[in-house]
Every structure is written in C-alpha cells, then in structure tokens.
Amino acid sequence: MCRDLLLSRHIAWRLFLRDFSAQYRVSFLGYAWAFLPPLLNSFIFVFLNSQGLLRVGSGGGPYPLFALTGTILWQLFADSLMMPLTVLQQSKSMLARLNFPRESVILSGLLGLLVTLGIRLLLLAGMMAYYGVAPTFHLLLLPFSLLALCLAGLSLGLIIAPLGILFGDVGRLLSMVLPFWMLLTPVIYPSRSHGMTAMIAAWNPVSPLIITARSLLAGSAPEHLLPSLAVTAGALILLMLGWLGFRLGMPHLVARMG
Predict the structure, then answer these.
(1) Whole-angstrom distance, CA of residue 102 vs CA of residue 95
(2) How far apart are CA 100 and CA 118, in angstroms?
(3) Where are the domains of the chain?
(4) Cα separation of 47 and 152, whole Å?
(5) pLDDT in tens, 79-132
(6) 168: buried, middle or exposed (CB in 10 Å: 19+, 13-18, 0-12)?
C-alpha cells in the first residue's frame, strides 16, 4: 500500500493539472468558483441575520466574518467527504481500461481540495484585514486543525465511495444529508453550553474540529482541543480502514465498471 502510494505521486500530479485546469477553463466565472460556494452560503445567513429573520450571535466578533469562517471550514470537510466518490465516478473509464495505482486518483482530488482551500483562505484573510482581526501565534496551529478536518472527511469518504460506485443512491443521499448535518454543527452559530443543540454538538464529531479551527483563525487559544484530538485519532483509524477497504474493493469495482 505504501509503495503504491509513493508510486502514484507523479500520476496524481498530472491528473491534478489536467482536472483543475479543465474544471475552471470551461466555466464563465473561472477560478471564482473556488470561493463562491462558501461566500454565497455565508451571505444567505448574514442577510437573514441582518434582517432579524434569524437571530444568531457570533460570540462578540463581526457576524459576517464568523459565518464566512464557519462555511469555509465546513466546506473543507464536506468536499473532503464527497471527493473520493466524485473523482472515482469521473475516472470510471480510465480505471476500467488502465492498470495504475488507484491511489493516484484520490491524491489528485486531494491536491485540488488543498488548492481550493488556499484560494478560500486568501478570501478569508482579506475579510479579517477588513474587520481588523490581527493574526496571532496561535495561527501556527491552523494547518494541523485544517488537516484534521480534511482527514475526518476523507476517512468517511473512502468508506462511502465503494458503495457510491455500486449504488447511485448513495451520492444523492449524501447531497441531502450534508446540508442538514451543517445545520446541526456550529457553523453559522456559536456553540451552546446547554439545550438540545449542545447535546447534538457533543455527539457531532465535526463540531470540535470546526470550533478549534475557528478559534485559531480568530487569534485565540484553541477551544475544544482535547475532543478535536480524539476525533482526529479516530479519523486516522477510519482512514486506514477505509484505505484497506478501498484496496480490497477496487478490483471488484473496476470489473463492474468494465
């Protein structure tokens, strides 16, 4: 497994260059699509909050920045979860006809996620500068927190992807579940210490990851650090299991594709 992962890096880079350029070359707005989804999603909640239709606090900071930070972090998790299924479906013909390390397809999708995340973080940095939020040394921990969010989504995505290849209902179900899951996560509202939302957040594995990353972006000490570390450790275990299942299942899936 490790040998194939190492061998797949060159193919993954070429696939990434091909897919990333093609993805935005055929669209009118081009690379703007890298940051439009979280920007538009956060704008909806900012507008509802400003009109009094949705009364949500931000913990003391400007709510537009709070909402944009949460939606960018959530989008990283959601994209990481959907990515394995998406890239495998897009590469069906290549997987069925050519024999190459299958991990390269996943790695190419992961590279695309990281580049898109970088573009979105530039947008967020501009918003932070506009509202006068200065970075602190806690920002040095942000890459590890973002990596934990990506690992959590990728581990689930690798487990779900084989089922999604076999049954088209899985992808449709995920597109329905993810928006509802977002509303159950403190993405556009701060975490609560009591009530139903607090109980749901306590059992929601994405909640501590979002809260920790947001606190680092806000320049404060990491909140919910221990739960985030526990979720990250669980995500690593799931990632290894998902990778093993991916290796065992791909020959059968490729035969079905062919």
Answers:
(1) 8
(2) 29
(3) 2-257
(4) 30
(5) 999 999 998 888 888 888 878 888 899 999 999 899 889 888 988 888 888 888
(6) exposed
